[in-house]
Write a structure and sequence with these properties.
Blueprint: H1 8-15, E1 31-32, E2 35-36, H2 42-48, H3 70-81, H4 87-100, H5 106-109, H6 119-131, E3 141-147, E4 150-156, E5 165-166
Helix pairs in contact: 3-4, 3-6, 4-6
Length: 167
């Protein structure tokens, strides 16, 4: 979080090693979970991006494909990082993820397309699709979602069966 133009996106792109030439990232290192990821190869970074580190943009329509259902788009990330999951398990996980980020009627909403969601709900879909790839047993993560006109933060536990905690 920060002021407009303060460099949030550039910093995130730099951490994820997504700055394209002629751009250059100059640093002594980027420590993530005790490891310097600035020294990692592109192949190694692909395993980290979307699984351990994700970026959620303010305008979710730039991240969601209007031609695909919400389920298809969340399943793409599961396909990338959770190859062992069956189709049924992926569907159940998609329902669970939408529930975790506060989407009402998640089973029905999976069949929806991005234009059928409000801007806030589209952001929640992006959060759901970008924050699960570690699957059950992963570390909790924190998101801030607007609730009844005020900011509320939830600690989402990715372990199945644990409900989000609000603060």
């Amino acid at each position: 979080m920060g002021e407009s133009g303060s460099g949030k996106s550039v910093s995130s792109f730099s951490i994820l090693k997504l700055i394209e030439p002629p751009g250059v990232v100059e640093s002594d290192g980027i420590l993530f979970q005790g490891e310097d990821i600035s020294k990692k190869s592109e192949r190694e970074m692909m395993k980290i991006r979307g699984k351990a580190i994700s970026m959620v943009f303010q305008d979710p329509m730039t991240s969601l494909n209007p031609l695909y259902t919400i389920e298809k788009q969340i399943t793409e990330m599961l396909d990338l990082h959770q190859k062992q999951m069956t189709k049924r398990e992926k569907h159940a996980r998609c329902v669970e993820l939408l529930h975790m980020v506060g989407i009402p009627n998640p089973e029905d909403r999976l069949k929806s397309y991005p234009h059928q969601f409000s801007g806030g709900m589209r952001q929640r879909v992006i959060i759901a699709s970008s924050s699960d790839p570690g699957g059950a047993g992963s570390q909790p993560f924190t998101i801030c979602l607007p609730a009844a006109g005020s900011a509320r933060c939830k600690i989402i536990r990715k372990n199945a069966g644990k409900e989000p905690q609000s603060s």
